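Reply to dn_fold:

You asked what the input looked like. This is it:
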Amino acid sequence: MEISKLLQNCRVYTAVQTTTELLPQKQPAIYAFYEALDFSRGELPNEVDAFVTKNGRFVAMRQDNWPFDLRITFRGNPDRFKGEGLRLSKELNQADLPSVREHLLFLSFFNEPLYIGKTEDLKVRFRAHNDNGFLWKMKNEFQRPPGEFVLMAYFCEEGLVRLIESVLIQAINPAFCDQKS
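and this is what came back:
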């Protein structure tokens, strides 16, 4: 089954307040917030290491009488950038770096979503998230600015929005959704 034509219904936006002007009005959508893969501040390998150090979450336990280590990874990969990806990023032509950074930021939606919702008007709902929703909570409780997130919206028929949202929440169980189905 070839379903890539459905990508025409998707849009990805940064989650900063200035994005509001880019959002369509009165268009039903399922949307999700993701951690932004924003590597635009310095050397790519160093930025990847800083990102995984900040966002890779794990618990490691070691007992003297255990013949093994127990490590549970919750999100992300806490290990330093390595292997072919590290080599390729170090060899990257600096003229290509802005394009690579743009691709990675767009592909942030490959992350596990932190929040999934539905709306009849994406612009209104986005403002609400800044005022008292997901983005507000990130700023006030976790000291994370909206620029650390991207919004991915999938536009579809109004009659399907609630059903699709419910299935996604049930199947994915995003960390910051209070609703569970």
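The first strand starts at residue 10 and ends at 14.
Hope that clears it up.
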